[in-house]
Amino acid sequence: MSNPFAELDSYSLGSDNSIPSEAIASLNTDGVVCLRNVFGPYWLATLERGIESALNGASTDLDIVKRDTDKGSFSFSSGAWAQVEEFRKVIFESHFADIGWSLLQSRRLTLFYDFLLIKQPFSSSAATPWHQDHSYYPLDGVDVINCWVALDDIPYESALRFQKGSHLEGQLYRAVDFENPNNAYRHAREHLPLIPGESEQGTILTTELKAGDMLAWKSYTVHSAPGNSLDQRRAAFSVNWLGDDVVFNGAASLETYRHESQVIGQRIACDKFPIVRE
């Protein structure tokens, strides 16, 4: 299948895993960038062992959803690094954090949370609706990125889609319910505007991925993904990183994004959200 949208910018790391300046420029301009072949067989195998552990009960925040209309299920896990040794190893011992640090260009880098998403074959209704990550966070600031690693080859049919430059105005949209976008999300801030429909969004960017490729996007970037209608798994492991300007704002949110030690107007760094680079 050819790309039905515009192709998003892709770059390779330097021999020392450095980020090309052009990649940082694309992230800042478009709100998203693709980095090719970030993780090789060793780290991909480590993540696969972590998936097995998470799905077998190690992750305390795991949901597995099977809809009647689908043959396959989809599952997601948040903040499992503290329980899953392999996820912790990838986050703290690989070059993952260095990439996030370079992309954010911050003095310090804080681990916010990891996220595992698996769409099994023929989970066609497991679509991810148009949304902004930041809509769900009790955070002020714009130095927030999601670094999303493909664990399988992902063709255009099931690839993520991004609204080019949608982060630039700093407009926060109302959070949507992932289970049923027609329902009100329980922590939605009702005063915020709804996400524009796809026909109103301007240029949509996407690209196909190989296992080990990484997408990185700003938390204000509007994006979505279709369900998986193919006969192959579609899995990814991502980490959300925080930079210098991020503080807690006290907005209602899931426990994943909060800690009892947080104080409004202050940085969120703590045992749950550790500083990993400074």
Output the helix-strand order. Answer: EEHEHEEHHEEEEEEEEEEE
The CATH architecture comes to Sandwich
Q: How many discrete domains? A: 1
The fraction of residues in strands falls at 25-35%
Task: Tell me which oligomeric state these chains represent.
Answer: single chain
Overall description:
The protein has 278 residues and is an alpha+beta fold. It has one domain (6-277): Jelly Rolls (Sandwich). The protein has helices at residues 21-30, 41-58, 85-93, 96-104, and strands at residues 6-7, 10-12, 32-36, 62-65, 74-78, 109-119, 128-131, 139-140, 144-150, 161-163, 204-206, 214-218, 223-225, 234-242, 247-248, 275-277. The strands form 3 sheets. Strands 2, 3, 4, 5, 6, 9, 12, 14 and 16 form a 9-stranded mixed sheet that branches. Strand 2, helix 1 and strand 3 (32-36) form a beta-alpha-beta unit. Helix 2 (41-58) packs antiparallel against helix 3.
Task: Summarize it.
Helix content is 17%, strand content 26%. The chain is an alpha+beta fold and 278 residues long.
Characteristics:
278 residues, Jelly Rolls, single chain, 9-stranded mixed beta sheet, alpha+beta
Task: Set out the fold topology.
Elements: E1 6-7, E2 10-12, H1 21-30, E3 32-36, H2 41-58, E4 62-65, E5 74-78, H3 85-93, H4 96-104, E6 109-119, E7 128-131, E8 139-140, E9 144-150, E10 161-163, E11 204-206, E12 214-218, E13 223-225, E14 234-242, E15 247-248, E16 275-277
Helix pairs in contact: 2-3
